[in-house]
Design goal:
- It comes from Maritimibacter harenae.
- GO terms for molecular function: ATP binding; ATP hydrolysis activity.
- Keywords: ATP-binding, Nucleotide-binding, Repeat, Sugar transport, Transport.
- This protein has 498 residues and is α/β, with parallel strands linked by helices.
- It folds into two domains: 237 residues, Rossmann fold, CATH 3.40.50; 240 residues, P-loop containing nucleotide triphosphate hydrolases (Rossmann fold, 3-Layer(aba) Sandwich), CATH 3.40.50.
- Helices cover 33% and strands 26% of the residues.
- The chain has 17 helices and 23 strands.
- It has a six-stranded mixed beta sheet, sandwiched between helices. A six-stranded mixed beta sheet has the order 17-20-21-15-22-23, sandwiched between helices. Strands 2-1-4-5 form a four-stranded antiparallel beta sheet, with helices on one face.
- Strand 18 and strand 19 form a beta hairpin.
- Helix 13 crosses helix 14 and helix 14 packs parallel to helix 15.
- The chain is globular and about 75 Å long.
Length: 498
C-alpha cells in the first residue's frame, strides 16, 4: 500500500532570535505526511531550535508557520499538541515510578461520571498499540524498562492524542548501539502509517538509512533540502561543515620507531571475552583498536586501565603499575570512556568538579581544597582543549555533546598522561565538533603521548591511526599499517573470525 503524501506544514521566512543571538534566519520549508524529514547540522546550526518552533516550545521571531494552509501561532507545546504536533526529545518526559498504562493514558482516561473507567481506559490504550503494532507491557513500571521501550511509551502517548506530526530530537543519543535499529524501524513505521516525522540528528548514517528528505542547516541558515537518496556521507559532511570530508582529519606526525614502548601488552586474556592479546604503543603513536561490535575492543581497553580483571602482562613505561585503576591513573594512564554520561561525567555537577574529579589530591592541603589553584588550572585546560562554556560553575548537562567530550579531554590532560585510551571519543558529537576532537588527539600525539583509539567509525580509525590492531571475537586478527591500512583490509580482518 502506498502512503498518501500531502504537505502538512509550511514555514515561510521563519526566524528566531534569543536576545541579540540569531538562531535561525529566513527558513522556508515544507513538511509532508508519510515521510521522514531529517534536520542535520552542527551544534548551534539551529536544527533543534527549528524543531522546537514547530511543536510550540519557542515562538518564531519572524516569518509564518502554516498548518494545512492556515497560519498557526502556538504559545505552548500543549497548544501545538491540540493541533496534532508533538516533540519527543532525548530526555523523555515520563513518570518512571508509574506504569506504562498510567503514562500513556494520563489526561486521556475514559471517564464514567466523575470516576475513571479503568477497563475502558486500558482497552483504549491497547487499541492504539494494536493499531500501530507497537506493543509494550502496560503493567510494567516505566523506570524498569529499556530506554527504547520508554521511547515507545512516549510515542504511544503522542499517538493516543491523535498526533499528526512527531519531532524526534536526537532520539538515539541515549541508546546502546543494538537498540538503534529498532528505533529507526519504528520511525519508518510511523511514516508508513501516514504521520509526518521530523528526525533531528547528527548521526549521518541514521539519516541516510531512515529518512526520505533531508534539510541541511548551517549557522542558522537553510543550506538545502532534497531527497535523502541523493545524498552520501561525504555530501552531508560538506553541506553541514562547508568543507570536504578529507579535510576533517588533521595531519599526524610519524612516531619515532626507535623509542621504547610506553605500553606493552603480552598475552592479555579474560576467559569468554578476549584471549592472548599482545601489542605495543610508542610515544607519539596513535594505535587504532578496531573490530565489529562485540569483538572485545572496549573490554581490552578496560582491562588495560584496570577496570576489569585480566591475566597476562601489562608493562607501562617499562615497569609494572599494579592492577588497580587508581595505580594506573597515578602512573600516567587516562581514559575517555565509551559512554560519557554513564561512565565519565557527573552530568549535573559543575564543569570544574568534572575536570578535577580524578585529580583532587593534587589540589588538597591541610586546609582542604585549594579552590583558587583548582579553578586556575581547570581554566587553563579548558582553554587548551577549546571547551566553550559560560562559567566553570555551570553543570556539564548545560553543554553540547562536543563540549561534554572536551570536559573529559580536559580532565585527562590535567594529569599529563603518558597514555590516553580514547574509547569512541566522538560518539554523540556533531561533525563540526569532531574535527576539534581529532585535533586534540593529534596534538597529544605530537607532544609524545601514546594514544589507544577505539572507534566504530572506520573512517575515523583510518584517518587518525598510524597503525591498527584488528580484533575479531576477542582475538587479534590482524595488524595493519602503511599501504596495507585500507578499509577493505580492515573489514576482511574484522570478519575473519565470524
Amino acid at each position: 500500500m502506498t502512503t498518501r503524501v500531502d504537505t502538512l506544514l509550511t514555514l515561510s521566512g521563519v526566524g528566531k532570535t534569543f536576545g541579540g543571538t540569531v538562531a535561525l534566519e529566513g527558513i522556508d520549508l515544507s513538511i509532508e505526511t508519510g515521510k521522514v524529514h531529517a534536520f542535520v547540522g552542527e551544534n548551534g546550526a539551529g536544527k533543534s531550535t527549528l524543531g522546537k518552533l514547530i511543536v510550540g516550545v519557542h515562538a518564531p521571531s519572524a516569518g509564518r508557520i502554516a498548518l494545512d494552509g492556515a497560519e498557526v501561532h502556538f504559545a505552548s507545546p500543549a497548544q501545538a499538541l491540540d493541533h496534532g504536533l508533538v516533540g519527543i526529545s532525548q530526555e523523555l518526559s515520563l513518570m518512571p515510578q508509574r506504569t506504562v498504562l498510567d503514562n500513556i493514558a494520563l489526561g486521556r482516561e475514559v471517564m464514567r461520571g466523575p470516576f475513571v473507567d479503568a477497563r475502558a481506559t486500558r482497552a483504549a490504550v491497547q487499541a492504539v498499540m494494536d493499531r500501530y503494532d507497537m506493543q509494550v507491557d502496560l503493567d510494567a513500571r516505566v523506570g524498569d524498562i529499556p530506554v527504547v521501550e520508554q521511547q515507545k511509551v512516549e510515542i504511544l502517548r503522542a499517538l493516543s492524542r491523535d498526533a499528526r506530526l512527531i519531532v524526534f530530537d536526537e532520539p538515539t543519543a541515549r541508546l546502546p548501539s543494538d537498540q538503534v535499529a529498532p528505533l529507526l524501524a519504528l520511525v519508518r513505521q510511523l511514516a508508513g502509517a501516514g504521520k509526518a516525522v521530523i528526525y533531528v540528528s547528527h548521526f549521518l548514517e541514521e539519516i541516510l538509512e531512515a529518512t526520505d528528505t533531508v534539510t541541511i542547516l548551517r549557522n542558522g541558515r537553510h543550506i538545502r533540502t532534497g531527497p535523502t537518496a541523493s545524498e552520501t556521507h561525504e555530501t552531508l559532511v560538506e553541506g553541514v561543515t562547508g568543507s570536504v570530508l578529507g579535510e576533517q582529519y588533521p595531519e599526524i606526525t610519524a612516531p619515532d620507531a626507535a623509542q621504547a614502548p610506553v605500553l606493552s601488552v603480552r598475552g592479555l586474556s579474560r576467559p569468554g571475552v578476549f584471549e592472548n592479546v599482545s601489542f605495543d604503543i610508542r610515544p607519539g603513536e596513535i594505535v587504532g583498536l578496531a573490530g565489529l561490535v562485540g569483538s572485545g575492543r572496549s573490554e581490552i581497553a578496560r582491562a588495560i586501565l584496570g577496570a576489569d580483571p585480566a591475566t597476562g602482562e601489562i608493562r607501562f613505561n617499562g615497569g609494572d603499575t599494579g592492577r588497580s585503576i587508581a595505580a594506573r591513573l597515578a602512573a600516567g594512564m587516562a581514559m575517555i570512556p565509551e559512554n560519557r554520561r554513564e561512565q565519565g561525567l557527573m552530568i549535573d555537577r559543575p564543569i570544574v568538579e568534572n575536570v578535577t574529579l580524578s585529580h583532587l589530591r593534587r589540589f588538597s592541603g591541610a586546609l582542604g581544597l585549594d579552590r583558587r589553584r583548582e579553578r586556575a588550572e581547570v581554566t587553563q585546560q579548558c582553554t587548551a582543549t577549546g571547551l566553550k562554556y559560560n562559567s566553570l560553575d555551570d553543570p556539564a548537562a548545560a553543554l553540547s555533546g562536543g563540549n561534554q567530550q572536551k570536559i573529559l579531554f580536559a580532565r585527562a590532560a590535567l594529569g599529563d598522561p603518558a597514555l590516553l585510551i580514547a574509547d569512541e571519543p566522538t560518539r554523540g558529537v556533531d561533525v563540526g565538533a569532531k574535527r576539534s576532537i581529532y585535533d586534540l588527539i593529534a596534538g597529544l600525539a605530537a607532544r609524545g603521548k601514546a594514544i589507544l583509539l577505539i572507534s566504530s567509525e572506520l573512517e575515523e580509525i583510518l584517518g587518525l591511526s598510524h597503525r591498527v590492531i584488528v580484533v575479531s571475537r576477542g582475538r587479534v586478527a590482524g595488524e595493519l599499517e602503511g599501504a596495507d591500512l585500507t578499509e577493505s583490509a580492515l573489514m576482511t580482518a574484522a570478519f575473519s573470525g565470524t
